[in-house]
Automatic annotation (TrEMBL):
Start and end residues of each Resolvase/invertase-type recombinase catalytic domain: 27-178
Name recorded for this polypeptide: Recombinase family protein
Chain segments carrying region Disordered: 548-580
Domain Recombinase per the UniProt entry, residue ranges: 186-315
Lineage top rank: taxon: Bacteria
UniProt entry keywords in alphabetical sequence: DNA integration, DNA recombination, DNA-binding
A Pfam family it matches: Recombinase
BP GO terms, sorted: DNA integration
Keyword Oxidoreductase: no
Organism of derivation: Alicyclobacillus mengziensis
């Protein structure tokens, strides 16, 4: 049996003749997944998942090990549609490798009902593949089998939502009692695990107060800013919070943190997860919870400190660039993953006039100093990217999509979902809401009986205990269905917007659109652009990755490598890219 551990950045080993041999020899794709860090570290259950799938395939279909390929992935979440092994499985299916797809249990395939149904219907059944599930059989011709299998997907999603809800409730309760439910490293404090609170770290407290004094009063008569504080701490060999380097950004973050006034705020943000993507959402201040901690500064001093830091920001703001950066806020560095920002232009040595503007990796421009020496440390090395060359390349790619939108519209139509499936979810939502209302009315009736003295407190508790569990379960199911339907609605809204933009602009040329309209169009159609030293990756909002890597196994569906390297502008654009 061929067994592949598929991780992010996985290089596809099957191309050309090797792929042809695979197509002829493999009859089934086995998929196995674990999600927790501990499972990922030790590989728990992966081997047993593959073994049990292989046993069933051998017993029921007389398949040999040589006719199976197993894809395993570690540490990936079940509600993430962009899991590398799942994407690679889709690629193998597109290449017609095998006729069956095997999993141990529905929750190994997905912990999202929607993702489970989409993969089965749009990938497996649409391509004529059979789904083999060891623990929960799946028969597409049996309504009962499909219903029970789908219910396993709903329950898997419900169980995950329940775990998250219980965890949040436990943490909030802990905060109300004056405890902190775990916290990232906060300079100046040590986390007391026995009492679950922050205690003073005397050495770091002194460093913090020294930083404050330098900002407010200077050092030896010389004014100090955030950069000079970071450099001075490095020269004095003061240990940095996370390693052997002091970042200007670290100093800024420490000095702006209100925790040093004696108030630790819990619940300022929360994580939202949709289709595998995490988003940090800010919560209103009224929802924050406060835990008292040792104070280093009084409020007036902290306010003076913030005002002084704001003067640095105003002084360093500088002039706005006089050109439009088409991809502002959308670009990442392919070397280190940092955000790419507008950089300083190059100028003629003779006249001083601006020659070119550049995209620059923020990892190159961060102000970082090595502890002990004060030496400047650059986190990313490599040339910058000419703004006009990159913008022109991405714009020409968009124009090609708009002039030939058939493939784009086909992808969009495939993502709009099955109307019958949506209608089924709406019916389930209405039924669940009705049952929930009945249960809540029943709870009121029991409470009224107790108030009137018709039943004892013990009888009330016995009646309410299972009822409360049913209500919690139904609330979670309704919430899951609401999120799923909302996700469909958001997708349709976004997709309809993309379709409208394509229809409106597909006959236009770049000469007919000004920079403002170009920016709006790019923001609608482009999700992210990754810049490498000699390659560009374009990820669109309809989930097509126009990648310069042509391995086929990383989820990219198109390759623009030849086009990119064939562009004279692309090659000559690096001539003035500055030093690496």
């Amino acid at each position: 049996m061929i067994t592949l551990s598929v991780e992010r950045g996985f290089q596809n080993p099957f191309i050309g003749r090797d792929l042809e041999n695979l197509i002829h020899s493999i009859k089934v794709i086995i998929y196995a997944r674990v999600s927790t860090d501990d499972q990922a570290k030790h590989g728990y259950s992966l081997e047993s998942q593959v073994e049990r799938c292989a046993e069933k395939l051998t017993a029921d279909y007389s398949l040999s090990d040589g006719e199976m390929i197993a894809l395993i992935e570690m540490g990936e979440m079940g509600d993430d549609p962009n899991r590398p092994a799942l994407q690679y499985a889709k690629w193998l299916i597109d290449q017609r490798v095998g006729q069956k797809f095997a999993v141990l249990h529905p929750d190994r395939l997905a912990r999202s009902f929607r993702l489970q149904v989409e993969f089965i219907e749009d990938v497996l059944l649409a391509n004529g593949y059979d789904l083999v599930s060891v623990e929960v059989p799946y028969d597409p011709d049996s309504p009962e089998s499909v219903f029970f299998f789908n219910m396993q997907g709903v329950m898997a999603q419900y169980q995950k939502a329940k775990i998250i809800a219980n965890s949040k409730r436990g943490r909030r309760t802990k905060v109300r009692s004056g405890q902190i439910p775990g916290v990232r490293r906060i300079y100046g404090y040590t986390f007391d695990r026995e009492r679950d609170t922050l205690i003073e770290n005397p050495a770091e407290r002194d460093v913090y107060l020294q930083m404050v004094d330098w900002i407010l009063n200077g050092k030896n008569g010389e004014p100090m800013n955030l950069t000079s504080v970071a450099r001075q701490l490095s020269l004095l060999n003061v240990p940095a919070p996370n390693g052997d380097k002091w970042y200007q950004a670290t100093v800024s973050r420490i000095l702006k943190n209100p925790v040093y006034t004696g108030r630790f705020y819990y619940g300022k943000t929360e994580y939202k997860q949709r289709k595998g993507e995490h988003e940090i959402v800010k919560k209103p201040k009224s929802d924050w919870q406060v835990v008292p901690v040792p104070a280093f500064l009084d409020d007036p001093t902290f306010e003076r400190l913030q005002q002084k830091i704001q003067t640095f920001a105003r002084a360093n703001r500088g002039a706005k660039p006089n050109v439009t950066y088409l991809l502002k806020g959308l670009v990442r560095c392919g070397r280190c993953g940092s955000a790419v920002v507008a950089g300083a232009p190059s100028r003629s040595k003779k006249t001083g006039e601006i020659m070119h503007h550049y995209y620059v990796c923020s990892g190159k421009t961060r102000k970082v100093f090595e502890v002990g020496t004060g030496r400047d440390v650059h986190q990313c090395r490599g040339r910058n990217w000419r703004q006009d060359v990159i913008d022109d390349y991405v714009w020409r790619y968009i124009v090609r999509c708009l002039k030939e939108p058939e493939s784009v519209l086909r992808e969009i139509r495939e993502r709009q979902g099955n109307p019958e499936q949506i209608q089924e979810l709406v019916k389930k939502q209405e039924t669940s809401k009705a049952v929930l209302l009945d249960k809540m009315e029943e709870r009121k009736r029991w409470i009224n009986l107790n108030v009137r003295g018709r039943i004892s407190d013990q009888e009330l508790d016995e009646a309410l205990d299972p009822l409360e569990k049913d209500i919690d379960r139904l609330k979670s199911i309704v919430e899951i269905l609401n999120d799923t339907l909302e996700s469909f609605a958001l997708d349709r809204k976004k997709i309809d917007e993309i379709k409208m933009v394509i229809e409106r602009f597909k006959t236009y040329t770049s000469e007919k659109i000004d920079d403002v309209d170009k920016r709006k169009l790019v923001a609608t159609l482009i999700k992210q652009v990754v810049l490498h030293d000699d390659e560009i990756e374009i990820f669109t909002t309809w989930d097509i990755a126009s990648s310069t890597n042509s391995g086929g196994g990383g989820g990219s569906k198109k390759s623009d490598r030849q086009y990119a390297l064939g562009s004279n502008n692309f090659n000559t654009g690096q001539v003035h890219g500055g030093p690496p």
